[in-house]
Amino acid sequence: MKYVSTRDKSVRLSGAEAIARGLSRDGGLFVPETIPALESGAIGKLCAMTYRERAAYIMGLYLDDYTPEELASFAERAYGDAFDTPLTAPVRSVDEKTHVLELWHGPTCAFKDMALQMLPHLLTSALLKTGEEKRVCILVATSGDTGKAALEGFRDVGRTRIMVFYPRDGVSDIQKLQMTSQAGENVGVCAVAGNFDDAQTGVKTIFSDEAFREEIAERGWFLSSANSINWGRLLPQIVYYISAYCDLVNRGAVKAGEKINFCVPTGNFGNILAGYYAMRMGLPVNRLVCASNRNDVLTDFIKTGVYDKNRPFHATISPSMDILVSSNLERLLFDFSGCDDKATAGYMAGLSSTGRYEVTPDVKAKLDAVFSGGFRSDEQTKETIGKVFWEQAYLIDTHTAVAWGVLEDYRAKTGDETPCVVVSTASPYKFCAAVLDALGDREETDGVGLIDRLAEKSGTKAPRPLAALKTAEARFTDCAEKDAMLPVVRDFLR
Ligand SMILES: *Cc1c(COP(=O)(O)O)cnc(C)c1O
Question: Which of 266, 271, 298 should be mutated for ligand 1, with most atoms under 8 A from CB?
């Protein structure tokens, strides 16, 4: 199985090469040349497997340059004791037609763990397979969840180091302490005196600094990224869509072959795109419902076929979805345009020059056939958290609540009663202040103390990694000026 760039199909690489390289030099993303089909009987076989076995099986369909033994061993290690349930990604049934796929049982309590616990194995193995002799330094700019999940995934992984920059005033106290207390010999964390954009711009500047790349290459290092454009992050996410379906079949909630919907809280379009790939493989999916917060650029895109990022940016209580440029949409455009690299490159050129592009009627028709979209305000999201808690005795986080609300709107509008899986992306304990507020307990402070407060108020238990923060100490206290991030990386690689 080969991978091609969405902007130039003549760039054709093995899976290991695509994962090692991350992004194509033409700026495109790597996609599988053909999407493998689940053979008849595959769902039946997968139903009888554990999550880890499902992961090895499904990833094997895409990565024929990795052996089944390698993939099985990666799955064992990625989805082992770091998860607080042997089910890895359990499905909770709320009523006959509504189910919740909980993707936050990993070490950092957000869905990023599903991919970032696997990526280090895929990447370090890719380095060996491609004959890369240098060691890799992962650089991450984070607005919260990605940084911690990447640190936890790469900690003490051989031949790697990881440096995370976060905006000093742009993450919650819990997210900050999660990162600054990170254990591991190969990790570094540094605040940036600025906002998320400053941190991200700083990291991009380091990536594009040829002289610096040469300097560290002489010392045996190269730079790579752990963000969701890497195929090695998308692939592990396909697994849980198929796994959730199997779980529903196993419990008799759907009949084998019966179609279901998924409703996904979306930012960068990475999570929901994995659901689309699962559907293209033959998973019985009726519709994918794309849920946004006030940053509703995707809702408009799905409605009109026009992607336009020229609009105000809103800081919301679901911050991991506060995004105006959904990078992974590029992969969908490539697929919908019949693998037309020129057309895809054209859309992306429009996005970078005018902030906007409009898809052809043919692409729009394909979009209509699969995707629905909707958005929810912060006020509505808090209402949903309260309602679900009081009516269902189930505590959900702000991102999950966006999806829950959008699903209610979708059902009311369309009358579509197909069984639906709401994809739940974070533990409510990651966003204590907003969740407490939703339960009618407005707190003036942020702080780790809110973890106990939420446990008391809701009668639920905090996940162990978050409860442990109460006694955690910050190891990393440095703060860099936004134009002085490069020396931090230089020091880190000494
Ligand atoms: C990253 C994240 C999302 C958005 O996922 P995308 O792949 O960017 O669409 C949603 N919820 C949470 C909690 C996240 O951390």
Answer: 271
* For ligand 1, mutation pick of 229, 290, 329, 399 (most atoms within 8 Å of CB): 399
pLDDT tens, position by position, 387-428:
999 999 999 999 999 999 999 999 999 999 999 999 999 999
pLDDT band at 285 (very low <50, low <70, confident <90, very high): very high
Task: State the DSSP H helix or E strand holding residue 135, giving kind and residue range, or none if neither.
Answer: strand 135-141
How many C-beta atoms surround the C-beta of residue 207 within 10 A?
Answer: 14
For residue 173, the model assigns a pLDDT of: 84
Strands (E), 360-474: 371-375, 420-424
Domain boundaries, the chain: 93-108+232-430
| pLDDT value of position 313 | 87
- The arrangement of secondary structure in 93-108+232-430, i.e. its CATH architecture, is 3-Layer(aba) Sandwich (3.40)
* 397 CA from centroid of ligand 1 (Å): 12
Q: Which residues, 6 or more positions from 179, have their beta carbon under 8 angstroms from its beta carbon?
A: 142, 147, 148, 151, 164, 166, 171, 189, 476
Closest atom of ligand 1 relative to the 397 alpha carbon:
13
Q: Which of 313, 329, 314, 324 is nearest to 269 (CA)?
A: 329
Say whether pTM exceeds 0.90. yes
Q: Where are the alpha helices (DSSP H) in 117-255?
A: 119-129, 145-154, 173-180, 196-207, 210-218, 231-250
**Residue 145 Cβ contacting ligand 1 at under 6 Å:** yes
Q: Which three-class secondary structure state does DSSP give residue 301?
A: helix
- Positions marked catalytic: 112
Query: Phi and psi of 90, rounded to 5°?
Result: -70, 150
Residues 6+ apart with CB under 8 A from 403: 263, 264, 265, 289, 291, 422, 423, 424
Count of residues for the chain? Answer: 494
| DSSP characters over 82-125 | TSSSTTSS-EEEEETTEEEEE---STTSBTHHHHHTTHHHHHHH
d(CA 227, CA 225): 6
Torsion of Cα atoms, 326 then 66 then 262 then 292, to 10°: -20
